[in-house]
Request: fold
Amino acid sequence: MFAVLKTGGKQYKVASGDVVRVEKLAAKAGDKIQFNEILMVGSTVGTPTVAGAGVQAEVIDQIKGEKTINFVKRRRKHGSQRTKGHRQQLTLVRIAEILEKGADKSGVMAAVSGAGIAHVTGANGAPTSKKAAAAAKRASTPKAEKPKAAPKAKAEPKAKAAPKAKAETGGDDLTRISGVGPVIVKKLHALDVTTFAQIAAWTPEDVAAMDEKLNFKGRIDRDDWLTQAAEFAKA
Reply:
């Protein structure tokens, strides 16, 4: 009877007594191992594997394959070339027995490729080593979903501060004087001049002082502020 097994990403057709080189297994010389990924046994074809089938084997030695040479050359102006050798790590095994059924209850250590952890399958096919059992438990336990954080409450918009009330000057509308605009009114208020009566009462010295402070250069006399202010004060 023959079987087709899969290990290390490759397929091997084997029969009892065959010595086969396979991709490196995590086992030592003398260990008895079992291949559980069986694609075909005799005339039984798996879908994709044959349920309950297995191939038992004995590890003979850990070896290296033939040396292969890789030559790389880059054809460029400043090209380079490199020669590199490689020897694939392999495991030499002797096929002992081909099982059509009951491989999951054999209790033989399962063959694991590379640096994986080989484990012994129990009566129900479950791993018996502590590390393998813990890994199986983690794989079978559904991950707990993290509780979703409650959405942050939107901060209430700050109430807009009420606009400050404009200071009431209690004065006259000085813009009625010819040539006086809001800017000049603001400057006069800064000098505590708010009424027509104040302007009408200016002396020549006051007029000269205001001309200098406001940099008017005789504008007060030219526009005759005092006469206009006196008329508005009477109204």
Summary: The radius of gyration is 51 Å. The helical segments are 130-140, 182-190, 196-200, 204-214, 219-222, 225-234. The chain has a mean pLDDT of 81.
